[in-house]
From TrEMBL:
Segments crossing the lipid bilayer: none
Name of protein: fructokinase
Top-level taxon: Bacteria
Family matches, as Gene3D superfamilies: 3.30.420.40
Organism: Irregularibacter muris
Entry cofactors: Mg(2+)
Pfam families, alphabetized: ROK
Catalytic reactions on record: D-fructose + ATP = D-fructose 6-phosphate + ADP + H(+)
Record keywords: ATP-binding, Carbohydrate metabolism, Kinase, Magnesium, Metal-binding, Nucleotide-binding, Transferase, Zinc
The protein's Enzyme Commission number: 2.7.1.4
Coiled coil: none
Gene Ontology terms for molecular function: ATP binding; fructokinase activity; metal ion binding
Family: Belongs to the ROK (NagC/XylR) family.
Length: 285
C-alpha cells in the first residue's frame, strides 16, 4: 500500500492506494498550524498498517537539497507557523518508511508526466496559477533542480500597457505571481477573481503575463508540453488567451509542437498532485 500527501498552503490532501495506484481512501482538511495539521495526517495514515512508502508534495519554498542540513524543511514561506519547519523529519519520526519529498508542483508535474497529459512525452512543465504561481519541470524522467527547486512563479515580467497595478508579491512586488496570481485580481478590483466576467480585460492582462513566462520557460527548457492548472485557469477563456499571446510573443523564433498540444490543461485535473505523490512513494521503494 502507498501513501501520498499533497500539502497545499490552503488545504492538505492525504490518500492511500494499492501498488497499482488505485486510490483506496482520500481525505482533505485545511492547512492550520504544523502540529495540528500533522496530527490529522498521522490520524489518517495510522489506520493503514501495511503502508510501504509515502510521497509528499509540499507547498514551499522547501529544501530538497540532500546535502543541506535543512533537507526536508519548509523554508522561507510567508506562512509563518511553517517557516523552518522540519516537515519530512516529523514524518520520518512517526513512520520509519521510505519517503519521497518534493514540491507540490513537482508532484503534480510527475503525475501528469507518468499518467496524465504528458504520458507520451519525455519532458513537460506543470504550472499552477492559483493563490500563488508555481511550476515544476521534468526532463527525461528527472525533476529539473539543482541547489534548490525552481521558483517559476517569481520571474520578472514587463507590465501590460493598460495595467497600473503595483503587484503584491512580498518579496518582488511585481513579479509574475505578484501580477497574475488569483489574489492580484481581487486586489485590483475588490472582488474575487471568480466573480469577474469572462470578457473583462483583466483576463487579457493576466494572459499577457502568463504568456511571457511561458515564452521564457520555452526558451530555457524547450519542453514538449506545458500544462496549466490552478483556479485562475478554470476561467475557460484563459487557455486560448494565453496561447494567442504566447504565439505573438514567441514570434516563431523557435519551433514548438502544435500549440494545442503544447499548452494544455492537466488531464488528471485536481488529482495531478496526489497521483504524483503516490508515484513518488512508489519510486522511493
Ligand atoms: P490554491 O492555489 O490555494 O491551491 P486554487 O488553485 O483553487 O487554490 O486557486 C485559488 C485562486 O484561484 C484564488 O485566488 C481564486 O480567486 C482563484 N480562482 C478560483 N476559481 C476561479 C475561477 N473560476 N476564475 C478565476 N479565478 C478563480
Ligand atoms: Zn515574487
Amino acid at each position: 500500500m502507498l501513501g501520498a500527501i499533497e500539502a497545499g498552503g490552503t488545504k492538505f490532501v492525504c490518500a492511500v492506494s494499492d501498488e497499482d495506484l488505485n486510490i483506496i481512501e482520500r481525505v482533505s482538511f485545511p492547512t492550520t498550524t504544523p502540529e495540528e495539521t500533522l496530527e490529522k495526517v498521522f490520524h489518517f495514515f495510522d489506520t493503514y498498517e501495511d503502508l510501504k512508502a509515502i510521497g509528499i508534495g509540499s507547498f514551499g519554498p522547501i529544501d530538497i537539497n540532500k546535502h543541506s542540513k535543512k533537507y526536508g524543511y519548509v523554508t522561507s514561506t510567508p506562512k509563518l507557523a511553517w517557516k523552518n519547519f522540519d516537515f519530512l523529519g516529523e514524518m520520518k519520526k512517526h513512520y520509519p518508511l521510505p519517503m519521497g519529498w518534493t514540491t507540490d508542483v513537482n508532484a503534480a508535474c510527475l503525475g501528469e508526466y507518468e499518467v496524465g497529459s504528458a504520458a507520451n512525452n519525455d519532458s513537460c512543465i506543470y504550472l499552477t496559477v492559483g493563490t500563488g504561481i508555481g511550476g515544476g519541470a521534468i526532463m527525461n524522467g528527472r525533476f529539473v533542480e539543482g541547489f534548490g527547486h525552481p521558483e517559476m512563479g517569481h520571474i520578472l515580467v514587463k507590465p501590460h500597457q493598460k495595467d497600473d497595478f503595483e503587484g503584491w508579491c512580498p518579496y518582488h512586488r511585481n513579479c509574475l505571481e505578484g501580477l497574475a496570481a488569483g489574489p492580484s485580481v481581487e486586489k485590483r478590483y475588490g472582488i474575487k477573481a471568480q466573480e469577474i466576467d469572462a470578457d473583462h480585460e483583466i483576463w487579457q492582462i493576466l494572459a499577457y503575463y502568463l504568456a511571457q513566462a511561458l515564452v521564457d520557460y520555452t526558451l530555457i527548457l524547450r519542453p514538449e508540453k506545458i500544462i496549466l492548472g490552478g483556479g485562475v485557469m478554470s476561467q475557460i477563456q484563459m487557455l486560448d488567451l494565453v496561447k494567442k499571446e504566447f504565439t505573438t510573443l514567441l514570434a516563431n523564433y523557435v519551433e514548438i509542437p502544435d500549440i494545442h498540444s503544447y499548452i494544455v490543461r492537466p488531464s488528471l485535473g485536481n488529482n495531478a498532485g496526489i497521483m504524483g505523490g503516490l508515484l513518488l512513494a512508489r519510486k522511493s521503494l
